[in-house]
Design a protein that fits this description.
16 strands; binds magnesium ion; alpha/beta; Rossmann fold; globular; binds adenosine-5'-triphosphate; nine-stranded mixed beta sheet; GMP Synthetase, Chain A, domain 3
Length: about 375
């Protein structure tokens, strides 16, 4: 900072002392100490600065903004305070050699089918984008790519591609502000190819390496269930920053989810990488009848129990809701059709939790 940034009407140290009282709730340290306060300047009683967070999806962003204004306004000589909230998304693992321009790749996984993995991936991606993050969504579920349908991509619409100097490039589609690519675009929706054998790995790698994502804060990947060739190829091509695991509350799904979690640990060991579990999303937790009563049709506590087993947060519990099913069927997800609904708020909370975990783990990692 230059000395001209302060004209002497306000004491710079007093501002820093005031801002030092604001703590980042996850990192447990002051925003001054963490170096989040940038471009501090004061002129004629007008104070301005940036607070650079570790993710645009920080759930306490607004609160911090208000707190900073309140605290600085109390300082002698201060008349106006302008705080610009910015962010620089931290990268959780070193994924150099991974996908160019992509800071964090987050897999959405489940131990068994039909628990709402794709629904969670879609709404998580949209909620992260809502917060201002640049987001991509990769539908890698070779068993039946459903994400293009959930995002209303008309059958037959294909991503653009070109060949430049012998290098194949494929440009993702843009849907509701997120970039979308699906392994389904490799095949005809009505006549799926059979993904088996060594050719699959090679095809998938070539495909994934051809996608031009541009700069992304988060790439959400809807993984197929299991531990086969496809999953290995995927995490070799696109090393994962972490995984979000989806489960339903009943015990049987719980056992499968533990297997899914172990899968990441095993993959991590095989490939000598650390794939942390970011948290658990419990889906179809309850059903609410018109009288407002919650019915726990699949039992209770499964998500919490699994979160406990892995020592990770339960990121959220999503009820079984007709507007979620409708969102999936109609091609207009609930976050787009009803952005102010409690369901959308719930997904934004989950997205905030994911983003916080990524930045916290990234900051801890860079501290060692
Ligand atoms: N919370 C919810 N409330 C209501 N319907 C839901 C909810 N979550 C998912 N669904 C619906 O359940 C069905 C299965 O969800 P989804 O396709 O997301 O599951 P999946 O785990 O990806 O399945 P698959 O294993 O087939 O890939 C879809 O019709 C979806 O709209
Ligand atoms: Mg699916």
């Amino acid at each position: 900072m230059n000395s001209e940034d302060f004209d002497g009407t306000v004491d710079k140290d007093a501002i820093l002392r005031a801002l030092n009282m604001i703590n980042d709730p996850d990192l447990g340290r002051s925003i001054v100490e963490l170096g989040f306060v940038k471009n501090l300047r004061a002129c004629g009683g007008n104070v301005a600065f940036d607070i650079e967070l570790t993710t645009p999806a920080c759930p306490v962003k607004d609160q911090m903004h208000e707190q900073a204004i309140d605290l600085v306004k109390q300082i002698e000589g201060v008349q106006n305070v302008a705080v610009n909230m910015t962010s620089r998304t931290r990268q959780l693992v070193d994924i150099r050699g991974g996908i160019p321009g992509v800071k964090n790749t987050i897999a959405v996984a489940a131990g068994k089918g039909g628990v709402g993995k794709s629904t969670t991936a879609v709404n998580l991606a949209l909620a992260l984008a809502d917060s201002g993050a640049k987001v991509g969504l990769l539908d890698a579920d070779i068993h039946g790519p459903s994400i293009p349908i959930m995002l209303g991509v008309p059958a037959g619409e294909m991503p653009d591609g070109e060949e430049e100097d012998g290098v194949q490039k494929i440009y993702p589609l843009d849907r509701f502000g997120i970039k979308l690519m699906s392994v389904g675009f490799l095949t005809d929706r009505d006549s799926p190819i059979i993904w088996r054998g060594p050719m699959v790995g090679k095809m998938l790698t070539t495909f994934l390496q051809s996608v031009v994502w541009g700069d992304l804060d988060y790439l959400i990947i809807d993984l197929p269930p299991g531990t086969g060739d496809v999953q290995l190829t995927l995490i070799q091509t696109a090393p994962l920053s972490g995984a979000v695991i989806v489960t339903t509350p009943e015990a049987v799904a719980g056992e499968d989810v533990i297997r899914a979690g172990k899968m990441f640990e095993k993959m991590g060991q095989t490939l000598n990488v650390n794939v942390p579990i970011l948290g658990i999303v419990e889906n179809m937790s309850w059903f609410e009848s018109p009288d407002g009563q919650r019915h726990y049709i699949f039992g209770e506590g499964g998500g919490q129990r699994i979160a406990g087993v892995f020592g990770v947060p339960l990121l959220g519990q999503v009820p079984r809701e007709p507007n979620i099913t409708r969102g999936g069927d109609s091609g207009i997800p609930v976050l787009v059709s009803q952005p102010n609904s409690p369901t959308s708020a719930l997904y934004r909370e989950i997205a905030g939790g994911v983003a916080r975990r990524v930045s916290t783990l990234a900051m801890e990692e860079s501290a060692v």
